[in-house]
Design brief:
By secondary structure, this protein is mostly helical. Helix content is 67%, strand content 3%. The protein has a domain of 55 residues: Multidrug-efflux Transporter Regulator, Chain: A, Domain 2 (Orthogonal Bundle). The protein is built from ten helices and two strands; from the N terminus they run ααββαααααααα. It has a two-stranded antiparallel ribbon with strand order 1-2. α3 crosses α4.
């Protein structure tokens, strides 16, 4: 397909496609003339994934390029998962990681142990978890490993669902795509679902009619 069709099918403008090509996010097409090239279905898949990683996942162009290039390498599922994880921006800003007390690192490690998780390598998420626990503590919410364990169990259930979705696939590209999609793109969806669930639960526990009645009693 020509670049015009690639743009039409993807919804990505031609200038943006050319920018992605210059940055190495997409494979160059097969040149058919001096200023013309043909692009494959694989180019379309890459384009859609690149656009999603940048616009939804919030990755930089450089980080997106790193993830996409890694997909061409013969890596394991575990390696693909790691590439997706470490390309993501940290859930906490860099300043939140500064001067994290050993107390909170110990609490984070205790939570990992209580959950029965075995981690691979030097994950940066221990420090990230410690930063989150410190932020909670500063707001007067001192959640220990025991207090956070139910949330860890919910996260584990979600992780099982994530990995179940790639079971049985043999095509390396398909596996890498699904790992990245579920790691990078599903995260904001899950956060949105949680907020919607909170709204629902709050409405069930505190009906609006009761709230209006209380407001009228105070007038």
């Amino acid at each position: 397909m020509k670049i015009s069709e690639l743009s039409r099918r993807s919804g990505v403008s031609i200038p943006t496609i050319k920018y992605y090509l210059r940055e190495g996010l997409l494979p160059t097409g097969t040149h058919t003339a001096r200023n013309q090239a043909e692009y494959s279905e694989n180019s379309l898949r890459r384009l859609l994934l690149a656009r999603a990683l940048i616009s939804v996942g919030g990755l930089s162009v450089a980080a997106t390029g790193k993830v996409l290039r890694a997909m061409d390498e013969p890596v394991t599922l575990l390696k693909s998962l790691g590439l997706a994880h470490y390309a993501l921006p940290s859930p906490f800003p860099a300043e939140a990681h500064e001067d994290v007390d050993e107390k909170f690192v110990a609490e984070a490690q205790a939570l990992i142990k209580a959950a029965g998780w075995e981690l691979v390598g030097d994950t940066p998420y221990i420090e990230c978890l410690a930063a989150g626990q410190k932020a909670l503590s500063l707001m007067g919410v001192d959640w220990t490993a025991e207090g956070l364990l139910p949330y860890a169990e919910l996260a584990h259930a979600t992780a099982r669902l994530d990995l179940d979705q790639v079971a049985g696939f043999e095509d390396r590209m398909a596996i890498a795509e699904r790992v990245i999609v579920r790691t990078v793109l599903l995260e904001p969806v899950l956060a949105t679902l949680r907020r919607l669930a909170q709204e629902h639960e709050a409405a069930q526990r505190y009906p609006r009619s009761d709230q209006l009645a209380r407001e009228s009693d105070t007038e």
